[in-house]
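Folds abound. A case:
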Amino acid sequence: MKMINRGISILITVMFVAALAFVPAKAMAAEQTTPSGIAYSDISKSMNDYVKEHEDELASVSAATFDRNGVITVYRYGYADIDKGVKADENTVYEWGSTSKTLIWVSIMQLYEKGLVDFDTDIREYLPEGFLKKLQYPDEKITLVNLMNHNAGFQESIYEKQETDENGLYSSLEEAVIKCQCYQAFHVGENTAYTNWGSALAAYIVERVSGQDYVTYVNENIFEPVGMKHTSVDMHMSDNEWVREQREKIHCYESISDSEPMTDLGVCHSWVQLYPAGCVTGTIDDIAAFAQGFVSHDCPFFEDNATRDLMLSPTSYFGGSDIAKVCHGLWSEQFKVSTIGHGGNTMGMTANIQFDPESGFGIVVLANKEGEKTFCTGLCRLMFGDFTDGALVASNPVKDHTDISGEYTMARGFFRGFGSAIRYASGFTMKATDDPDVFNMPLTGGAQMVHIGDKMWQLKSSDGNSVFCYESVDAAGNPKLEIMSTDLVKANPLGTISFYAFLLLTLGCILTLFIKLVVMVIRKIRGKERVVTLADRQITLQQIIQGVSGIILFLMCNNGVHGHALAVFSCIMASLLGLISLANGGMLVKNTVGNSEILKRTAVKRYIWAAIAILYIVFIIGFQLYDFIHI
């Protein structure tokens, strides 16, 4: 009897094990959930429902979810070419934009693993002697970690020429880094200021240390181990002809308004001079395989998983907190959980990689739409949840905060050299409201800064998106607001006032000149002549000088960052106008002083314009020429 019972027990056990062996893999994974709480078996439904809800904003979106065991699902929605009805498929390629920088940092970590670079060594040890020519603080050490953290002090690259054509690209990465070299605006470690040039400089160090050009290095050390056969890193896409051909088949789009949500930009290539910082192009399957490597059981990038674990450890924090900001070049973002990843934009495409290092779950989203957020950010929020619902906010409920009202500007910008006026045109105003925890941001389309926890803020934009923000202080003790890729620092009130006063005066002069022209034409038609004095001509000349200067400033803010020739021409023109203005103001004073024949009101008018003429040269010398020196 015992033998029979034992046999039955063994039989039942064998049958149970056999039954388990035939349970589908998806059923086994059904109990797993995304960080936001979606069961793996419901990911497809949630994804489809979300896309359907926002299909009016859709050009094409390709997305993939993954975890430690591999890629879970791949989705393709919409059209690579709407007019021709070409649907996005497995052959559709997208530009990564700044997500390309992840390859730079993986390359640096590989060299670190081999002992070829060190994180405590000054980067000048890896560069030709005297290579860095625009250091404001040459005695301060800059390390590879500073480049990874975007806090080496570099401002934006003024002559990057992002919007060039293919024929305008430099011949090598070394030439691009030299020609685009930018000014060091801050002390090392003082501010986080996202920099394409600093990232490209790290890629150039990869070339110097490895002895290979960057394209060859990435293809051999990242693409081949991961199996990325449908991705290009070269600025001309010459390292993968298949990708180059496929790139001609996809169009880019942008949204103009709700009534006309989609504008076809055509193929719309983004030829990037500092190509390692934003020039990768490839399929969703390839980038999904790459992203999954960060969480896989056996990381394909490194010899030892410990190197991967080190890469995912923080190298920079928000303020004085323990909240990670950067992990060896990868940004830490706040959702319901803290994720690690990197987004990117080009002139017509958007990309995003995000993964939770704790659970290993991640998502990649690619879109052929400029500045796309509904899907590239929204799908991440769908999978990871909102940071206002996370443990980070819940565990820091203190609501006291300092007064953050005032004028701010992004540390990612232009603080020295030609183009520095741009920071005044793109500043932020924090204005207190009746609610002490809410600050309005005028001129930003209804954005608000909302206090949600101890030193934690939510930057809410009018389109429904939000960004985690942390309150800290600068070296002078002024409030500073830190977001993921840049700090918002207090703006110089005098500079802001001078900038906008100059623009208002310019607009007034242009309007006055237009009215004068109309009046003159009307008088000519009616045959009525008006006596024009020398002082009248001098005032008109000053108005012309002011108007032309305003146009130059406008060109500087909108185009000057894309060309050294335009910078030099604009500064020379401003200098000449300044000298003419000085002479004109002096003559105006001379013609007014001691002239008893003119009315008092007329004399006051002349003195005002003389003062404006003289102040103009002060503005030119103290602002434009000073900045010109720092090109």
